[in-house]
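Reopening: structure tokens for the histidyl-adenosine monophosphate complex, inputs below.
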Amino acid sequence: MSQDAPSRKDLTAVKGTRDILPEEVGAWRAVEALARETFERYGYRELRAPVIEPTELYEKSSGQTSDIVTKEMYTFIDKGGRSVTLRPEYTPSVVRAVIEHRLDLQPQPMRYFYMGPMFRYDKPQKGRYRQFHQIDVEVFGEKDPAIDAEIIEMVDAFLAALRVPDTEILVNSVGDRKCRPAYGRALREAALNRLADLCPDCQRKAETNPLRIFDCKVESCREAARSFPSILDYLCDECRDHFQKFLGYLDLFRIPYRVDPRLVRGLDYYTKTTFEIVSGRLGAQNSLVGGGRYDDMMKDFGGPDICATGFAMGMERLLSVVDLGLPKRPFLYLAYLGQEAKRAGLEMARAFRRGGVECLVEFKDRGMKAHFARANKLEAAWVLTVGEDELRRGRYGLKEMAGGRQVEGTPEELLAAILVR
Ligand code: HAM
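Re-run output (same inputs, fresh job):
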């Protein structure tokens, strides 16, 4: 080994990232397929945007004072001297794509979904990664509060189909640019009165953006925040009306929820509705789904004045609380004896695969007994036997491993026998 060769210790995944191994991928694919199928039933279409974006995109949207922008972004200067960022969330990318491709010229509302990796340089812990995956849903051009309820009803249906245990839906309104300034002033005053109880970070937030104090997990800050005024007492008529109607639609859908006036969410762009779905099974990082309305982002980006609402859900957290009980995919194991049988077996495997049957062919020389032992260990559904005798007769053996049933036939007959099962 040369002196510069990396040691084994260096060759591990970057802290806070993880490999998704083959035995886990089945669950990922099942959840992704269910999400696609569910969201498409509600009229959503998939939109895929790049993983890197101009840094400015997040500074303008997620917020100059949010933890995501101030502390957690993977930002670097590329070889062309531009500041780019690995996306910490998906929402700003969709807004950029809508403006860039003039998707706003299409009939509204436009409904999009996406699934893929996001990157946040946060302290890794259970349920919190530096590379994690979101399923994200965004709707543009619908101001009716019914849409805020519809996306919750949709994600509720999705979580119910996965039998996600122990969930609670929390809802709130954070007002808009008309009513939030008065609330901001009241909040600042309350925060300054409790300054001694706040952590240094929140003491700074008391001046810059007191709403963000609600994101803090430090117990003394949470305790102080409980004494702060409620945003719901400061909503303007328009925001109050939106919130009441939104709750009315949730009632219509018979969705249980709890109003939580401290639910402001860790991003600066929300207006009116915010919501979160938490799970009692998740531990400290208990938020499974988070979202809300963000009516100003599009116009703040210099695009058309189009309102928006949406949510994102964390795949890792979701998968940690569901038990899919996925059945193993049935496959056929090819047991051959000798070179001629190997060649005939390979041709048959080719035909079976093209016919839709998963076949496993191993190239290690084995006797028939060893082949069957191996097929058993791998939990093959069927074993196809090709030996000298079978070659001579042009008829081959197929054993169904679970029931022990054996049939004999031509390759076509055996393929048909598998396909009718
Ligand atoms: P968020 O609350 O920052 O919202 O993230 C949404 C979900 O992503 C969380 O509820 C959680 O399940 C998952 N998540 C977030 N950070 C991590 C992490 N470090 N490790 C593992 N999972 C994580 C947003 O991202 C908004 N863009 C949601 C939205 C869409 N609002 C409107 N449209």
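The chain has 15 helices and 16 strands. Residues 142 and 302 are 19 Å apart (CA to CA). Marking as resolved unless the reporter disagrees.
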